[in-house]
Structure formats: structure tokens, C-alpha cells
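Reagents: none. Just compute today. GTP-binding protein obg.
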Amino acid sequence: MPANLTPDYFKAEKWFKSASTDEERILALEEMLRVIPKHKGTDHMRADLRKKLSKLRTAVEEGGKKGGKRTDIFHVPKNGAGQLVLVGTPNCGKSSVVAAVSKASVNVTDFPFATQTPVPGMMYHEDVQIEIVDMPPITPDYAPAGMVNTYRNCDIIGIVIDVAADPLEQMEVCTEYLQSHRLLPDENTDEQDEQGNRLARKTIVICTKIDAAPDGTIETLAELTERDFEYLPFSAHTGEGLHEMVARVFELLNVVRVYAKKPGKEPDMKEPFTLDKGSTVEDLAFTIHRELAEKLQSARAWNAPDIHDGQNVQKTHELTDKEIIELHFA
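Predicted 3D structure written out:
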């Protein structure tokens, strides 16, 4: 019986043959199994693919258990005011989002699994830098083991859904992955682990390719999804929703920007310090220099509500967004 293999299968097979790592071969085999026609003519091929996949997974797992210090390719140090890390299925548009809002060298292609390691970039909300991280895609059957640590260390998770192609199926894959690792807040998930580390992360849904989706798709997806997510429409083709998405991420970071001013000089309005809301003048001093903070005597504030410009404030003065602070040390 003929196999009648599809163009998508041959693309995945070509990718498998050109793969340079076992991790990449695993992803390619996953894709081959996903797109191969399922009938008697492909029974032996599918069995062979599953056998290859099992061997590769075993090899990768055993290699990770053997001695020797290994570099964690999924460790992405935080930069800027906060970090947004994307999660999504193959070809959902993650790389297109990163390319649209930053200058990161992402690989935007029509071929799945083009992203194999985290790709960080910096996006701007006004004068504030926010880090955005493209990640390898996940499937119902596979996600790189070390990738979960990237999500555990970030500030916000962005579920990227191509709303022009089976959005509910994509959502189920992403939420199942995040829930299985206790990254989504709900009544069944503790907010902290035994060591007091925060588990669940703020999560948004970035709906890509809205210019190609039928009207009402996002509303239908929201109704069919059990969780109460916030949905942000986005089109890399038209630019729709770009600025709104970045602005909303800044709001969710829950930070304030503060401009430092040296006595007798103009404030530096180009690179603000970003601190958590509720931070004080003393917290700002520690952010600038820990040793100097111990010598902090007083401060003056501008552009703050309920006080006059240049007024003296206490160390405990709570900072507000776009405030200008002049620190005085002993």
C-alpha cells in the first residue's frame, strides 16, 4: 500500500537529516510523526520513527545524567525593567513578535522549530527597556527539559497563539505544559514552593495573525478557555496591537521609573532606574550603590504628587513613576 507522504513530511524529513544536535533531531522526528499520514501503508514507517525517537530521548537523558559540568543553554539573565518569555507551538508567530518589537536576531520562517535555543531581545516602552525572550516551540509530546527554568525565572509568560490556525488546540498544549509545571496560578496551585520561591507567573495571551483570522476568533477562544487570561491582539504584518502590547507588559511588571539627579546638575532623563512599586528613596540608594546607601542623609524630589518640586523627603518616601530624586550623602 503506498505511503502517499505529504510535502510537510518531506520538509520535516529534510530538517531531520540536516539536524546538528540530538535535541533538534527529536523535534524533527516529533514533527514527522505529527504530519505523516496515518494508514496501513505507513504503519512500519511510524513504528520506525517512534523507535528512533525513543532511542534519541534515552541518549539525551543519559547524557545529561553523566558527570561533567554543562552549560545551561536555557539560562537567560534578566536585563531591563523585567523579562517577558514566550511559549507556543510550532509556527505560532513567537519569532515574529520578537522581531517586531526588538532588534534580536530571530529566525522568522514558515518552517516549524526554527528556534532551538532562547533568543533574548530588548523592547522599549517609552524610555524603559523590557527583555523579551523567544523560546523553542513545544508540542503535545515534547518540550526541552531545561526550558522550564526559563519560565520559572521570568516575570511574565506570554502564551503566543496563531488565531488563524486551530487556536484552541494551541491553547490546550500551552496551558497543559504550564500547568504541569505549576506556572499558572489557580486554586490548586500553591503560590510558593517549600523554600518560599514564587511558582506561578503572571500570564498573558498574545494573539498573532489577527489580520488573517475571522472576526470574533479571540472572543470565541476566550469563551472556550477555562482560564481567565488577558488577550492581546497582534499582527506582525500590519503592526496592529504592537504598542498596546508593550505598554501592557510594562503595566504588568508593576514597576516605577525614577530619574537620578546630582546636586546642582540637571537630572539624567535618558536612562531611568526601575524599581518595584512601593520602593522607597532608601531602596533607590541601594540600587545605585550599596555602600553609598549607608551614608544617605536626605533627598529632594521633583515631579511627585502631593509635594512641591525640590521638597526634602524622608528615606521612607515611596517613589512614584517618573519621579526625579536628588540624593544627599554624608
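Residues 43-65 form the longest helix (23 residues).
Action item: order primers for follow-up constructs.
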